[in-house]
Amino acid sequence: MSWTRRSVGLLVAAAVVMSVAACTAEGGGGGGASCVAQYTYQDITYQDVGNVEFTPRKKLGVATEPPCDDSGDRDKGEEPAGLTGTAYEVDGFSPEVAIAVGDTPETARFFAVSSDSEFPPEVQKLIDNS
What we know:
The radius of gyration is 20 Å and the shape is globular. Strand 1 and strand 2 (44-48) form a beta hairpin. The chain has helices at residues 3-25, 121-128; strands spanning 38-41, 44-48, 56-64, 84-90, 98-102, 109-112. Helix content is 24%, strand content 26%. The chain has 130 residues and is α+β, with helices and mostly antiparallel strands. The protein is built from 2 helices and 6 strands, in the order αββββββα.
């Protein structure tokens, strides 16, 4: 076997191993828990909606990412510091339903309240139309 064939074979094997490791780390089938991207603003917790079209408006304040322990290794009394981001109003939505969070309005992601992983009807409509 030539050096080139062995190198290509090793690269393919490495890519497969990395893909499997990435799926396991993301909670894609290893049975492990995975944290959902969330932020809390004024005592309301919002869940990441994903790729939807929205227009951020005026700055509301600071949103905080709740601590997540998807590994189960954290001591019970230990609370890791949550990340923070700027919360923005979203055109067409009350802040009690949805906000955008990011460093700037251009980089902000859309977050909405959810109950049992179900979004309010107006948010679901936005998701369905995206």
